[in-house]
Amino acid sequence: MPVIQPPSKVLVSGANGYIAMWTIRDLLEHGYSVRGTVRSAQKGRYIRKYFADYGEKLELVVVEDITKEGAFDEAVKGVDAVAHTASPVFSGDIVETAVKGTIRVLQSALQFGQSIKRIVYTSSGVAVMHEVDQPTTFTEEDWNLPGINALKEQGKNASDIVKYRASKVLAEQGAWSFVEEHKHEISWDLTVVNPTLVFGPAIHEVTDPTSLNFSAQLFYDHVADPAKSDKVARQSLSNTLYTWVDVRDVGEGQRRALETPEAGGERIIISAGPWRWQDFIDAANSLDPPPQLSKPLPKGNPGVGSQHSCMSYLDNTKSQRILGMKYRSIAEVTRDTFADYEARGW
Fold it and tell me: Which H or E run includes 13?
């Protein structure tokens, strides 16, 4: 029997985010009710409009500062599960916000979440893998401890990417430590999902390509903007550094992690596989009919992308075995993302 099932109510933090919006959509489409948190009423207006057809199935509450003690006390009351997606990427005090925000959700759930059965925390593949000098396969047993060491060594001089990687490790470690410390008090269990680099169409509020979130903007800049094509052509093609996943699969993975009994107490990599920008560029140039965009498509070095190995391969076997995940392909995500660009007039 599922841990939760429709019409259960799920709390989704950071509701206006790239991943969160697809998580909410997946939950609503499967008959769930959703309570989403946003930092201000203004940030909730677009969400209400986008999901207007679902009426009272979607509720929004304001949590101005996720790091404050008691921030989620009211939000967790009466929900059956929590999907915690709210986390900074490259803004503010990345580490403190990620760590404290995650602990605040768990503290509130412990004190006021009597009806909660499961919490799913969205960590990241960067909490699993670290930089290597030869092709390496990472699993859920691995931790990016070098990322924490890099932050300690660099201190205030650390780049945003170093801070972000460390924040995901420290926040996830904090979550598991909290559960262990309070295991005799909590009535719910914890599942952590670790998505890799996330691409795919955006349904959160964006106005132009520069307002896309970090990973989606990377995709646009490298695959849809010809001004970047020379850079891609000059790029070393010896290895792929990482793996990718479609944002819609991350949303589905969140729901499956909420529902599946066997997912309790597990961390689960959510990943479609290795990639190079050239793979996506070739997929875009193979679209028939060609997308009608405001700029011509980059060409890069046709055909050479898939010939090279992946430096940091994140094994998705566990997600397939426990959650039954089946991932979208490079061709699918490219087709649907470019359809989104075309609809937006980009």
Answer: strand 9-13
The verdict on whether omega for the bond into residue 209 sits within 30 degrees of 0, i.e. cis, is no
Query: What are the counts of helices (DSSP H) followed by strands (DSSP E) for the chain?
Result: 11, 14
Average pLDDT over residues 106-119: 98
Residue carrying the six token digits 């986390």: 87
Determine the distance from the C-alpha atom of residue 289 to the mean position of all C-alpha atoms in its chain, rounded to a whole number: 30
Q: pTM higher than 0.85, yes or no?
A: yes
SS (H, E, C) 153-179: HHHHHCCHHHHHHHHHHHHHHHHHHHH
- For the segment 115-168, what is each residue's pLDDT rounded down to a tens digit? 999 999 999 999 999 989 888 999 999 999 999 999 999 988 898 889 999 999
Report the C-alpha gap between 330 and 276 in whole angstroms.
Answer: 10
Q: Is the peptide bond before 7 cis (omega within 30 degrees of 0)?
A: yes
d(CA 168, CA 187): 25
Nearest partner of 113 among 83, 60, 84, 73, judged by Cα:
73
Q: Give, in degrees to the nearest 5, the angle at Cα 63 between 60 and 65.
A: 155
**Residue 94, strand partner residues:** none
Q: Number of C-alpha atoms within 13 angstroms, CB side, residue 21?
A: 20
Q: From CA 310, how far away is CA 134, in angstroms rounded?
A: 9
Task: Say which amino acid occupies 98.
Answer: A
Residue 86 has pLDDT above 70, yes or no: yes
Q: Kindly give the residue spans of alpha helices, DSSP state H, lying in 286-326.
A: 317-323
Query: Binning pLDDT at 50, 70 and 90, where does residue 239 land?
Result: very low
**Phi, psi (deg, nearest 5) at residue 323:** -95, -10
Segment 169-213, tens digit of pLDDT: 999 999 999 999 999 999 999 999 999 999 999 999 999 999 999
- Per-residue pLDDT at 91: 60
Beta carbons of 240 and 330 less than 8 angstroms apart: no
